[in-house]
Amino acid sequence: MNDVGPGTSGHDDDDMGLEDALRHAAALLDPVPSDLVQIAVDAYTLRTLDAELAALTFDSLMEPGAVRGATETRLATFHADGVTIDVEITIMGATGRVLGQVIPAQPALIEVRGRRPGAVSADAMGRFVCDQVPTGPFSLRCRLQGAVVATEWIII
Question: Are 124 and 78 within one domain?
Fold first, then answer.
């Protein structure tokens, strides 16, 4: 029977010490082969191979006279072969709201990649809204009809 009470993790300092000792012993006695680490890194790199990269071609933050403030609206445009993704980013404290459109207009699944991943659907006009996107780096992965397009990473 488990004697874990509410609000406790079930681990005490002895358990954590034992876990650290076991990790250390495993690393010494049975280390992960270096070629396996490289294979894992290569596999992780290939996870987005099916997505075409949409390059950032316009960023209002890079315009002359642009100033970053506590609340602001930022416009960005990404281009890939035959697809444009326009976004308007409104920063509200620790989160942002991304209002966007896929051109040419079409329904799509928009995945937000970043600190808090999520997904929204673009309507038949290609419009979508992603609320509560944490500040920091993020990218959009758009699953369109017959193609997958991923935007460059930008920081909000």
Answer: yes
